[in-house]
Amino acid sequence: xxxxxxxxxxxxxxxxxxxxxxxxxxxxxxxxxxxxxxxxxxxxxxxxxxxxxxxxxxxxxxxxxxxxxxxxxxxxxxxxxxxxxxxxxxxxxxxxxxxxxxxxxxxxxxxxxxxxxxxxxxxxxxxxxxxxxxxxxxxxxxxxxxx
Length: 147
Ligand SMILES: CC(C)(COP(=O)(O)OP(=O)(O)OC[C@H]1O[C@@H](n2cnc3c(N)ncnc32)[C@H](O)[C@@H]1OP(=O)(O)O)[C@@H](O)C(=O)NCCC(=O)NCCS
Description:
The chain is an alpha+beta fold and 147 residues long. The chain is 29% helix and 38% strand. The strands form two sheets. A seven-stranded mixed sheet has the order 1-2-3-4-5-9-6, sandwiched between helices. The chain is globular, with a radius of gyration of 14 Å. The site of coenzyme A has 19 residues, from helix 1, strand 4, helix 3 and helix 4.
């Protein structure tokens, strides 16, 4: 079951931090973003935050599946749900990620295509080096999907 969360978004910080490890960066979009949580029974297993970027574009700012639940199709299912939901009022969904095979592969499997890059996003905006799969992230790679 997927539920939109309107109050108490910070309860899910542990999940959000899996996808974005700096709290101050999460705070930048958490207030203005829509949050969705996927439950298995009483247990919150995945989370996503989407913002309205104007001009018919929404942005998937954060998506994370709990470590014990990864690799079972839940992340892809959540993306499909979000594309259906936002497809009623938006034209395009975009998502930015670090340049690693793991996350870029996931978005490609979810129907996103590479669009552009923001040079030095990670090195300019984070207060410490962000390392993913042994790679120090520097540029933000953007993907987009027509809704
Ligand atoms: C990235 C993440 C959201 C993916 O969710 P998931 O539930 O584990 O992924 P799914 O099981 O739904 O996989 C969906 C598809 O992506 C593919 N995929 C998943 N991980 C992949 C990887 N490392 N490399 C390539 N493809 C991958 C799967 O093979 C699957 O493809 P298929 O539909 O052809 O079978 C999840 O692993 C996660 O939360 N990771 C930590 C936080 C994070 O990195 N978030 C994204 C930040 S930008």
